[in-house]
Write the structure tokens for this entry.
Amino acid sequence: MIPWCPVKRLFVGTKNRDKLREIEEILLGLPIELHALPQDAPEVDEDGTTLEENSRKKALEYAAFVKAPVIADDTGLFVDALDGAPGIKAARYAGEKATYADNRKKLQRALEGVPAPRRTARFRCVIALARPGAVLGTFEGHVEGRIADAPRGGGTFGYDPIFLVPELGKTLAELSPQEKNKLSHRAKALERAKAALLELI
């Protein structure tokens, strides 16, 4: 049972504009006012060893800063042929200042010569919901796939252009936002979070 806490106004704990837009699209229609973090919100040091630790830390620290409920996520890409790398370091795989393209190129270099059947991978996302002083719940989603030989599609961000969903024969970047938001790791985690949010309203 999730501790009761009335939620009408919810902050999204990220400064990544692409991630913010995606979360807003997935939660569209929920009777909650979604707000971006203030410009002066501090960076949270993601020093946890798991996705859950990082998402909980972000949600708690941002909730304390804005003095309101916050939903925050941490996402990782786990590639079997690389013993789970880049894992929770996916956003900084090629360095602290790496671009999306930098990260994709490093991953594809690491997989050079690895045949398609061994390029299996999964995206995992953990969402934490917190109010000041307490985490109210965590929710996980994942999607299985394979790392493509070359980028395909340009509609989304991160590793999406090289993350192939085998049953669809498309990368996440080749899907429409509506298609992606039905099957992605973040969409699945947020669907589970939605039920909790509705309990709290």
